[in-house]
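Long-time lurker, first post. I've been practising inverse folding by hand and with some scripts of my own, and I keep getting stuck on stretches where the structure tokens seem ambiguous. Below is the full token string for one chain I'm working on. Before anyone asks, I'm not after the true native sequence, just a reasonable design that respects the backbone. If someone could post their per-position residues I'd love to compare against what I wrote down in my notebook.
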């Protein structure tokens, strides 16, 4: 499962999201939106108004959402047990 966290510098919610994914052992990719203005424009056009924006194959959200991060970690754990 590919998880992408779109971040910006000096963003406490971005840092908290990355920390929580790491703590739960979830692999993710990061994209710094200041280095990718076209991606920022696309996310704004899609209705996202705050960082981070997290995109997974089955869901997406913005802001620090420990409940959704835990849900993703649980799904990955279930998938690993079924492999």
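-- Answer (accepted) --
I ran through it position by position. Result:
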């Amino acid at each position: 499962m590919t998880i992408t966290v779109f971040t910006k510098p000096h963003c406490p919610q971005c840092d908290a999201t990355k920390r929580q994914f790491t703590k739960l052992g979830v692999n993710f990719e990061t994209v710094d939106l200041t280095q990718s203005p076209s991606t920022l424009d696309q996310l704004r056009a899609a209705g996202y108004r705050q960082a981070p924006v997290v995109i997974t194959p089955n869901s997406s959200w913005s802001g620090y959402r420990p409940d959704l991060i835990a849900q993703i970690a649980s799904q990955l754990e279930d998938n690993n047990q079924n492999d």
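A couple of notes from the structure itself: Residues 66-82 form the longest helix (17 residues). Residues 48 and 62 are 7 Å apart (CA to CA). Happy to go over any region you disagree with.
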